[in-house]
UniProtKB/TrEMBL annotation:
Location of the 3-beta hydroxysteroid dehydrogenase/isomerase domain: 6-114
Gene3D superfamilies (alphabetical): NAD(P)-binding Rossmann-like Domain
Keywords from the UniProt entry: NADP, Oxidoreductase
Organism for this UniProt entry: Camellia sinensis
Annotated protein name in UniProt: 3-beta hydroxysteroid dehydrogenase/isomerase domain-containing protein
Domain of life the protein comes from: Eukaryota
PANTHER family (UniProt xref): NAD DEPENDENT EPIMERASE/DEHYDRATASE, TETRAKETIDE ALPHA-PYRONE REDUCTASE 2
Classification via Pfam families: 3Beta_HSD (PF01073)
InterPro entries named in the record: 3Beta_OHSteriod_DH/Estase, NAD(P)-bd_dom_sf, NAD(P)_dehydrat-like
Molecular function in Gene Ontology: oxidoreductase activity, acting on the CH-OH group of donors, NAD or NADP as acceptor
Gene Ontology biological process: steroid biosynthetic process
Amino acid sequence: MVEGSFDKAIEGVDGVFHTASPLLISYDHNVEAKSLPSDSPIKIDPSIEGTLNVLSSCTKASSVRRVVLTSSCSAIRYRDDVQQVSPLDESHWSDLEYYCKRYNLWYAYAKTIAKKEACWSLTCSTANKYTQLILTIVKGLRGEYQSTTIGFVHIDDVIAAHILAMEDSEASGRLICSSSVAHWSDIIDMLRSKYPTHPFDNKWSSQKGDNNPHSMNSNNIIKLGLPPLKTIDQMFDDCIKSFQDKGFL
């Protein structure tokens, strides 16, 4: 957050990956979505200022040729017309005023604001933030599942997409990397059939506005040479095997 704090670290490097930024949100569904007062649950400043700080250091370093910023498809898929305009591509943005605020989707709101204001050269891929969530689901510790329809992508494909975006001079702007879109209920059904010895609950959150069917178009990054994306089955099989190898299951 301190201006210039990345100058020394970035000096002399050819490329920079910015894969995460702080996004502090208080999940209170009683918060009014009509306005964003100073005590709003959204803390966007760290995300914007932190990213701008990195980019500022990149512009100061004459050696830097490319910057890859990891975003989230949450900045794309939250809109009333999502089914009509699917498959979603890099030209689409989540609707802040009439959708995210209405359903208190603060994460999507903050991600969209941060990326619109902070990113001048953006490579978009879904962040791998669900590992702990998957472990609690498989162990039957989740209690209540998210009523969410969301894009999935294998971490190996995420890594390959980042490397491609860094090394290929043709890569620019936003690039979607999403293998499949599914509701969490479909994932639970799939896991239950493949791993019947593990406990799975059937409780779903009452959150609205987060389960609209849609699809994602990853053609642009595939055209750049990204290999065929792995399936949902492969993602979860590899994830659970990793849990088993590490003794988590």
